[in-house]
Helix-turn-helix domain-containing protein (Streptomyces buecherae), 185 residues
Amino acid sequence: MGQIEQGLERALRTRPVPASTEARLRFLLASHGGSTRRVAAVLGVSQRTVQRWVTKKPGARRPPGPAHVWAIEEAVLARWQPRVRARRRVRAEAEGFIFHTRARFGFAAPAGSSDDPRVRWITQDLPGEVARELFAARDAGAGEQQQTVILARALGHAYFREWGRRAHGLHIAFSDVEFADFSIG
């Protein structure tokens, strides 16, 4: 998962995801009515394996392996705050969002301009159309590169060309994203 995808995920949540594997297992059990059988089906392991992970008996407890830890994390992320995420997405698509980033920006512009790429801190309010395009691309399985292209086009128009008031021939190169955060209303 790239910086842009992580930033979108953080923006859609209002509470942090449980950090420890034990807390994540407790969440999965709670969201499946305490059924170790249903949690096992979600994770693709046996019911007995889940029981070993969550037992209170000191000698019987076995921690999940690295592959299972990853599966537990993915299952929790898929089920964490679904209604909140849906509301925040609708709000971002309707009202837009504020995009905060530190990345390398370069230009393809007419002669006489400085087109050397350099790292910039940018905070820019972007419209709901950009949010709709980003979410549609993410839903279609687009990778970090496609999302970067969408944001480069939006930042080029909003930040560098000031919504079409200047630098009409300027094309933006957006790369080396150090971080990407989104603030939704």
Summary: The helical segments are 3-12, 21-31, 36-43, 47-54, 66-79, 82-95, 128-139, 144-160. Residues 144-160 form the longest helix (17 residues). Residues 100 and 142 are 21 Å apart (CA to CA).
